[in-house]
Amino acid sequence: MILSLEALSFARLNRAVLSGITTNVSDRALTCLVGPNGAGKTTLLRILSGELRATSGAFLIDNNDTSALSQKEIARHFSIIPQDVQPPQHFTVFELVALGRFHPHGALWWRLSDRDRDAVHAYLSRCQVEQLSKWRVEELSGGEQQRAWLAFGLAQDKRFLLLDETLDGLDVFAKQSFFKFLKEVALEGKGVLLTTHDLDLVAQFADKVIVLSSGRISYEGPPDTNLQRFLFPTSV
What we know:
Layout: E1 2-12, E2 15-26, E3 30-34, H1 41-48, E4 56-61, E5 64-65, H2 71-75, E6 78-81, H3 93-99, H4 114-126, H5 142-155, E7 160-164, H6 172-187, E8 191-195, H7 199-205, E9 208-213, E10 216-221, H8 228-231
Parallel strand pairs: 3-8, 3-9, 6-7, 7-8
Antiparallel strand pairs: 1-2, 1-4, 4-5, 9-10
């Protein structure tokens, strides 16, 4: 599955936030979206998830134009963990991850199936929080909460996982562990799009890098170059 953006632009209050974005995001790849604060990274993820609509241009999923799709239809392809997500009060880690298996159809009668329960335990284990499954989410450390949220995102079993600076604030060892894990997830067939400021880990793990500067793409390609010089191209 491939996400294609064609001359995509977005404006808010007559101010351009994104301008002429043309790029592809593939499954089976870890794509890192980098850029200074205010470059438009979060806005781009919100458009991909269906939360926002582009002002102009096209957003296609496997060559199918999404303009006629509802937010719910677009969201079927994506699980997203937004920036600074707050833990739900009084939810245990197991309950949070189980929520990722929620099916809106027949919601009043929905309950975890055996298959759902097996999937929850599998992702708790993969994200190394199974031993914390009975803890309340707000009782966890920052790194443990990030692992619980990642298990929640993976439990949704969508084709693409969108992470908005989800790993920022963790120590360097935790970040490296997360990047390695996300690389494994991508190799197993899921598309992972991560916004981050950590260029060293991007260079080490990313399959593709997209650099945004002032709402435009200043670089896209492999992480085998000096990315720093593309962050503020007008100042060079």
